Amino acid sequence: MEDVSERGEEARPDGNGRRPFVGVVLAGGLSRRMGQDKALLPLRGQGGLTLLGQAVGRLAGLCPEVWVSCGCGRRYDGYVCVPDASFDSAAVRGGPLPEHLRDGADGGPGPLAGLATCLARAHAQGWAGMLTLPCDMPHLPEHLLRALLEAAAGQDKALAVFYRTQGGWEEPLAGVYRCGALPFLMRALQSGQRRVRSILPESARLLLPLPEAAHSLFANCNTPEQARALGVDIPTAGDGTAVRQSLEESM
User: Fold this and answer.
1) Residue 20, H or E segment
2) Fewest Cβ atoms closer than 10 Å to its Cβ: which of 109, 136, 225, 243?
3) Each residue's pLDDT tens digit, 125-150
């Protein structure tokens, strides 16, 4: 297991002095409604491939390096992990996260902490930004992720790129974030804001049009019922030992 927060190694820049985009799988949720760590749940008929493994594999086909953004105190064996706790590091922001933003009974700051932590790390290592994908979107196809990268590479003014349907639905957690978005993420964290889609002004976002019918490709699973509907196996009380042990080992 490799932990970026402890590695202290910088990515090698390309000829332009900055790497393009690092891939980041968002897996820092508490999985309370699922009742177990959903990142470790296997996909039906995929030979034991987990939601996390699938997401990492998709980004690995598009980005030269992939990190897993995980919750405070959690690690996933075999992956490059960036825990939200690293946001407390003086090297990242110069001081500890305010008490009301730490992981706690209310679930902490949510995916915003993972986005800010990884974007700060990407900036420090010389990346232009990051391509993000939640671990629990098993049906999001690679070509939609590739289109995000291509759109971001075609211009450098937008600080974030993600999809919007004609009806106004947006999914900011599957998108591209440039390092210039970091001050906006930091201010939102400090103010206690959690709604990612409203952090950046419209002028700083590039919203790719998405047909309403494609909305379902972004479906995620927060409950056992949603997971089963999306082709994820949920261990029963009689066969959940392995998953529980994996969760305990990752903590």
Assistant:
1) strand 19-27
2) 225
3) 999 999 999 999 999 999 999 999 99
Burial of residue 227, with CB atoms counted within 10 A of its CB: 0-12 exposed, 13-18 middle, 19 or more buried: buried
Question: In the sheet that 205-210 helps form, which strands lie side by side, from edge to edge?
Answer: 2-3, 80-83, 66-70, 19-27, 127-134, 175-178, 160-165, 205-210
What distances in angstroms separate CA 207 from CA 20, 62, 156, 192, 242, one per listed residue? 20, 20, 14, 25, 41
The 3-state DSSP class for residue 97 equals: coil
Domains of the chain with CATH codes? 2-6+18-250 (3.90.550.10)
CA 106 to chain centroid? 20
Q: How far apart are CA 128 and CA 70, in angstroms?
A: 21
Q: Are 197 and 172 in contact (CB under 8 A)?
A: yes
Stated as kind and residue range, the H or E segment containing 112 is helix 111-124
DSSP 8-state code for residue 207: E
Of 96 and 44, the structure prediction assigns the larger pLDDT to 44
pLDDT at 108: 54
Residue 53 CA to residue 180 CA, distance in Å, equals: 29
Asked if the model's pLDDT at residue 106 lies above 60, the reply is: no
The amino acid at residue 249 is: E
Across residues 142-163, what is the average pLDDT?
94
Q: Is the dihedral of CA 242, 61, 64, 94 positive or negative?
A: negative
Contacts of residue 12, Cβ cutoff 8 Å, sequence gap at least 6: 19, 126
